[in-house]
Amino acid sequence: MMEEICRYFTKAFYVKEWPCKFILCIEGSGSERAALIRDFYEVSLQGEATKFTYPSIDPSVMASLSELVDATLTVEAVIIRLQRLIHNMAEEIRFESFHDEELMLYAFYLKRILERNKKMLAPK
């Protein structure tokens, strides 16, 4: 299943802006991708209660951008079009590395994730 999820995500564009995360599905079937993600959550949770609230996924209301606009699109082409649009709308665009504070926060949250996963994967 994980290999299939990875394959599907290569055809999607992941966007994270705290506190919201979403996946913009660009290529292929949005409902198939959503069903795969829903099934992944179900298998992973194994019917157990968790401290986290996982999203409710309804594949019947999901579609890719290609499906919605009835055109053949690729992730690469959409990214290029978005970059051109931003460039046309902005006076200046700067591509920068993360700042020190951002790197510290990243390291902090990564450590927490790794510790949480270690606890979750420990034999019961």
Structural account:
With 124 residues, the protein is mainly α. Helix content is 53%, strand content 10%. It is built from five helices and two strands, in the order αββαααα. The protein has a two-stranded antiparallel ribbon. Strand 1 and strand 2 form a beta hairpin. Helix 1 packs antiparallel against helix 2. It starts with a helix and ends with a helix.
Task: Describe the structure in brief.
The protein has 124 residues and is mainly alpha-helical.
Q: Secondary structure elements and their pairing?
A:
Layout: H1 2-9, E1 12-17, E2 20-25, H2 30-45, H3 65-69, H4 75-89, H5 100-121
Antiparallel strand pairs: 1-2
Helix pairs in contact: 1-2
Number of helices: 5
User: What is the rounded Rg?
Assistant: 18 Å
Residue ranges: pLDDT <50 for 5 or more in a row? 4-10, 12-18
How many beta-strand segments? 2
Biggest sheet character = 2 strands, antiparallel
Oligomer: single chain
Structural class: mainly alpha
Helix content: 40-55%
Task: Provide the β-strand percentage band.
Answer: 5-15%
Residue-averaged pLDDT: 79
Helix-strand string: HEEHHHH
Give the strand line-up of the largest sheet. Answer: 1-2
- Shape estimate: flat
Distance between the termini: 23 Å
Provide keyphrases for this structure.
single chain, 124 residues, mainly alpha, two-stranded antiparallel sheet
